Known about the structure:
Elements: H1 5-54, E1 56-58, E2 61-63, E3 81-86, E4 91-94, E5 113-121, E6 124-135, E7 138-147, H2 148-184, H3 186-199, H4 212-263, H5 269-295, E8 305-306, H6 307-321, E9 328-333, E10 338-339, H7 343-360, E11 364-374, E12 377-386, H8 416-426, E13 430-435, E14 441-448
Parallel strand pairs: 9-11
Antiparallel strand pairs: 1-2, 3-4, 3-7, 5-6, 6-7, 8-10, 11-12, 12-14, 13-14
Helix pairs in contact: 1-2, 4-5, 5-8, 6-7, 7-8
Amino acid sequence: MKHSLRLRVLMASGLILLISVALIVFSVMKSFERAQYDLIKKELAAGANVLLTVASVTDQQLVMPHLMPDERFNQVESEVLGLVLDKQGDVLWRSHSSLDEILYYSVQFDEHTTNFARYSGPEGSYFLYDIDILLEGLPLTFLTMIPATEYKEVFIAFRSNLLLSLSLTALLMMVVLWYGMHWSLIPIRKLAGNLQRIEAGDTNRLEGVYSSELVALTDALNQLLNNERQQRERYRDAMADLAHSLKTPLAVLQSAQYSQTLKNHGENENVGAVIDEQVHRMNQIISYQLQRALTRQRGLVRHRADVADIVGRITRTLDKVYHDKRVELNTDIDAGIHFPAEEQDMMEVLGNLLENAYRLCLHQVQVSSHTLLQDGKSWTVCQIEDDGAGVPESRRQAILKRGVRADSRTKGQGIGLAVAMDIIDSYDGSLSISDSELGGASFTIRLPL
Length: 449
């Protein structure tokens, strides 16, 4: 999941949604706060104007009616408070709702002005609105107040509801986005599945209808696969033609040398042996170089070669070749195990290793194969053992090089193991040599799945 396209899009979308929700909350709360302030200001201003309307001055004394037109000033439990102050800030009149309130508000009289503010004092926090006016020569301040606690409760409730609503909306949007991503990535998952089928060798091209954005890609991949397949076929054909063209004159040369040897009644037997040896060596070198070139031509397709089938076909042939030796073959191959390689390549590798085991063993050859999980990676492991003389530790690396033979007592040019090593390398595998429990050598092949 670390490199998942869907996860990256969801994380980016989630971050954008989080930032958007934060900006929306900030903007809406600011707007709500301004709207509340305006509403409270209008409410208090209306109350102050009511007080001003009913007030009168007689002999420089303020006269207020016993009952106010606005019932809120007549109710003791009302949240709206009304007061009339003189220029020094002394209370000249207060509404029934403010009888129990102690006011520490400092009046700064400024004729014909109004003031709206939030006031905090020992008695609590209030919103207040005052009108400073000279009424028949008497400086008066008409003051209305409302506790800020009610506004704070409304503000907190609104903010909680807003956050809850936006959070649920964001969560719903994330769910919709997840399903949208799942639906949108169907063509890409289809493409990935078809590529896996190609790697597994189940098909040789991308099949099906793809969205217009992927058509150019799928067409290019199909063209690449087709070109790669045709190139491999042409390469194999060319190599086969080259091998045939080279081997024919070599065979003629070998035949001519043999005829000349018979004609001279053995007089040039040493020369003939040298020529025969060199011709045989040239033949093996040609085969090695051709096989080496072919093993480096790996394409996109991942092949599967059944281990038990290959081992069975090779050993049945070797049983006939070494019939007189009566080799005892033991196999321990897990069911369904396979090499992630072309069958022809693994026939070459196991053919070389098993032929060496049959040729150099005393009586026993053992083949085992299983799957190994190591460092989070799966491997196909195949081990070939014999009870022969084994391979000295000092020569184990050397015999995997071209031209070095494991057994100098037998004919050959040391090409087989080098070919096998090149093939295994082309599949990012490894070939190691160790001592076998049977007493001889143990050759272990490891190929990554």
